[in-house]
Amino acid sequence: MKFWTILASGFGAGYAPKAPGTFGSLVGLALGAALLYYGHLPLLLGIVVFSVVGVEAIRATGNAAHDPKWIVVDEIAGQMIPLLMLSHVGVMGMVFSFALFRLFDIFKPGPVGWADARHDEYGVMGDDLIAGVMAAVVVALLRLVLPL
Description:
Oligomer: single chain
Strand content: under 5%
Structural class: mainly alpha
Largest sheet: none
């Protein structure tokens, strides 16, 4: 497997026979949790790195126009975004972050759908980054009433 393919597939998670996007999101959740353990700055840097590397990996594989299911680097970057709203790594916060991100990623409301309609590497990455931001807003609101 080529270097860019390994990155674009989320270290192979994108080759899961069922629900590769969910497996990619789980990779993002695990990486994001590990980075959050060390603080918000490492998590933010991880999001930036995976976003930039993701665009290049998608471009390098030549698959931006089709957005094949095996490309999950976008889910990894997007899934880490709502974790920024958590004060610490905790089960309930992780569950809400994961569930909300997947909800926005699957149903593609508003700007998520707009970005998804682009058939280039920025659209492939953009819909998941926007879904991550939308999930982050909801997680921030939930923190007002729940101990996340």
